[in-house]
Amino acid sequence: MELVDESIDVIDLFAVHAYAVAYLLACAGVGLLASVAFESARRAQTVGAGSVFGLFLLDTFTFDTDYEWLGDIAFSRYFDPGAILVAGDVSWADLAVLSSAVVVLVVASSEYFERQDLAG
């Protein structure tokens, strides 16, 4: 496919969209945990969206600094669509980190929900 005198491999385009699913599921996992932790829907939405945005800012401001290790907790650190589209590089390790984060967040949300449900 060619857009604006630049070619993009269709396989790479598919790969970046497939990779984005793991990234978006990780972001949704943060929202799921927030919705279980707070009784108010408004507060849960604010905390969930604020956490994802805050993690993005943390990644952005610590990139290529002495505090770069702080940004390792941000999901955006593990999703680089440019590397996939330009060079065709898919980092399986980063995909594994995102997938693991999804599993951990969903399991933690489920356990927390069960304990809240039994206690209340």
Report on the architecture of this protein.
This protein is mainly alpha-helical and 120 residues long. The protein has one domain. The chain contains 4 helices and 2 strands. It has a two-stranded antiparallel sheet. It is elongated. The N and C termini lie far apart (56 Å). Keywords: Membrane, Transmembrane, Transmembrane helix.
Topology at a glance:
Elements: E1 2-3, E2 6-7, H1 10-37, H2 41-62, H3 81-87, H4 92-119
Antiparallel strand pairs: 1-2
Short key terms for the protein model shown above:
71% helix; 120 residues; mainly alpha; single chain
Low-confidence stretches: none
Element pattern in H and E: EEHHHH
Q: What is the count of distinct domains?
A: 1
- Globally, the shape reads elongated
* Oligomeric assembly: single chain
The Cα radius of gyration reads: 17 Å
Content of β-strand: under 5%
How many β strands by DSSP?
Answer: 2
Transmembrane segments: 20-38, 45-63, 83-108
Keywords: Membrane, Transmembrane, Transmembrane helix
Organism: Natrinema salifodinae
Protein name: ABC-2 type transport system permease protein
